[in-house]
Amino acid sequence: MEYNFQVWEDLNKLLNGQINRRRLLQLTGCGIAGAGILAACGGPNPPHPITGTVTPAGKVNTNVGPARQISPYYLGYNNVPIHSPSWDDPDAVRAATQLKPEILRYPGGTVANYWDWKSGWFIPNAPSGFLSAPHSTYRLQELQLAVQATGAKPIYVLNMLTSDVNSQLEMLHTAQSMGLPVQFVEMGNEFYLSNPNDYVTKFPTGSAYGQMTTSWIGAIRAEFPDVRIAAVGGVPGGSGNQRKSNWNQDLFQTLQGADALTLHLYVGINKGAVTPDGSSGSVSKLNDLVSTRWQDFVNEIQSLPANMKLWFTEYNFVDASHEVFHTWIHGVFAAKMTLTFLEEDRTELACFYDMIGKTGNEAIFYDQQNQVGGNLPSQYGLTAAGWTMRLLGDTIKGMTSAQNLSLSSTTTINDSLQGWIFTDGTHQQAFLINSSSDSFTWIPNSALAQGTRYQQLTSDPFKIITESSSLTVNTGTLGNQLTLPAYSVTQLK
User: Fold this and answer.
1) φ/ψ of residue 195, rounded to 5
2) pLDDT tens by residue, 134-167
3) Kind and range of the H or E element at 443?
4) Which residue range is the domain that position 470 belongs to?
5) Same domain, yes or no: 414 and 464
6) pLDDT in tens, 254-274
7) Residue 311 CB partners (closer than 8 Å, separation 6+)
8) CATH number where 413 lies
């Protein structure tokens, strides 16, 4: 996530009670910057079914698209100790297993550029905002606890900024000797940014980064020939910043040997985007923002080499005013963004930002000061994003093939309805999203057998989700039609 030193230091003060939220929002404008975070998904027991009557606005028909292969490690999470407890906390481990993560990004995003893997904390001359964060040791030993508990595979984000290739190779060899899988390596984080300045000093152009990365890739492959390696890809935008806007073009002048590019998709929400009454018009604005930003990335992707896979290793909203975070619609769009990446055949994996914390981005709420209460989830409680991502993780884990369900209705725009069927060759499961203000009667076709069990989650779009009672849950058996409530996610399994 885009990083700003002053914002990070003030965010730490906020989390430690040393600065008020209004001051932080003045500093952030419409974007909060920081680093990815790890942990886990815990929380209350699944909500009990609630019976309700919904009047559908129309019928939804289905066309099934062609099958595309997906990796059996598609869905993962960012994993950084800044706001979360250590993995030696059994509550964190228990919480993590609920999300069924297939990937854990170690040690995370921006923090990786200043990380000392041996101590499990930052190098001594790291930015003060990192060094002053509450200490939570995150060595390979702690990562091992998480991997053993969840079965997830690590992505090792290498420190190319303040370390050297020999030290990072030693980390990979040490991980391997501990029984940790070494299958995925990410070559640093977001070096296309101009802040902090040491990014520009180290890599004045994308070409300079590509040259160093090519050298490191050669050294890594000499000792780990089967590892998959992703280089830092630039994101669309950066008008007025030539280095950022030309990053990908310059990168491919020198980059060789990479299997994939990392892309970070954040959707900025300007203050006031959500009306006080949380109207459907606000949801439409969010839908337009997500669709427009995704199209920006589609256009950028078309300019990349055709053989280059894509790793979306961070994605979420940027919601400095907290108008959307923790609301039900945030959960709906977290799942929606995760599935949207499948529309690009080259997408290999996606890592949600992030798993645990109290910034608003998280799937699991955790306050290091244990000052919970009020209109917030409980400690280790699922947020709105946690509820939807947990259901999606249960649907997609281990699947190897996916088919897009084209859901169409005469009364709503198509991108408000989304669906995918997943299979591992034996089991078939599906996930449907209705992000519109209308409910619909869905007519499934023969792709999904009658008798399949379904579970639906829904709520008012801008209701803060604090516990299971904040949600309405419908469960049952699929017949020849099924109601898709407004603002709902549906699992068929």
Assistant:
1) -125, 115
2) 888 999 999 999 999 999 999 999 999 999 999 9
3) none
4) 406-492
5) yes
6) 999 999 999 999 999 988 888
7) 155, 186, 230, 260, 261, 262, 263, 348, 349, 350, 351
8) 2.60.40.1180
